[in-house]
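One-letter codes give the sequence; each number marks local geometry. A record appears below:


***
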Amino acid sequence: MELSPRVRSGEVSSHISIILVTLAQLIFFTRFHKYIAWSITEPDGSVTRLSMLTNDYFTWLPIMITASIMVIIVSIAMMTYDNYRFRRTTEISFSIIGIVVSVSLVSIFPFDFSVIPNAATAEVVPIAVTGFFILLPVFYGVTALIMFLRLRKYMAKQDSS
């Protein structure tokens, strides 16, 4: 399936965006994780950050780093190799990588919300975060299924031609 130059430039722009977002995410999670915290402004104006991350975060971090590097490398490959089957298969693999990263985060759950001073908030935040991290792999799974069905339809159409 040959793409027009306009569609191809859109594909390349999309891959560049994926690379930039992944790099930003990689930098944030490796360098600025201390900001995943509850901030309290002291009477003197200083800010105290109470980290919500446990040491288990550093167990999950290599999984996220590996997945991010894989996404960057494959995005570069998708920019240089223009093939519909490769592109769709890669998009399916991105969704599977997302499932692995989010399920590993839920299973490790490196958060300690006891630092939140408001009791009601401390009770609601873990439920909301857990719900989000459970919905995330569901979203990735549905995306992978849709991509797989599109690829299968395309391949069936190619075989009948």
The chain has one domain: 5-152. Helices lie at 5-31, 57-80, 84-108, 119-160. The first strand starts at residue 37 and ends at 41. The beta strands are 37-41, 47-51.
